[in-house]
């Protein structure tokens, strides 16, 4: 899946050089993944290809949320999402934004429990529909380059009777073609 996604993003980046208003963005952040007993902070890289219409941006992204462990439980999550982002014009080089996101998330969750002579393992590896919200600021440092920073919340889905939520902060760079 990772190789396919990288091929798609590479193809879009090449095609986008002939299109106006197309951009690519890379972000690095820290996220807390919470699911039942699991609550760990992890490094979360993401890449996106988007289209900027002026006040609104639309993007397709891939995010790797990592693996979180707690005792006998673990959750590994990655997702492909689509975002709609509104850039708020404030007459300053720093431009705030707010947005919403829907995603298809691959969730691999495993939970082991032991009591007396009974040992049970519940494992789920499936795709779940997720949704989220984001807010942040971007700063244009050159004609085609912007730096950004923001916060986000995503409900990634449900596995083994637990909701899986992500809270994070990220920083990144955007290049406009």
UniProtKB/TrEMBL annotation:
Gene3D superfamilies, per the entry: 2.40.160.20
Keyword Ribonucleoprotein found: no
Signal peptide location: 1-20
One annotated Gene Ontology cellular component of this protein: cell outer membrane
Residue ranges annotated for the Porin opacity type domain, each copy included: 49-177
GO molecular function, one term: porin activity
Keywords: Signal
Pfam families in alphabetical order: Opacity
Family per record: Belongs to the opacity porin family.
Protein's name according to its UniProt entry: Opacity family porin protein
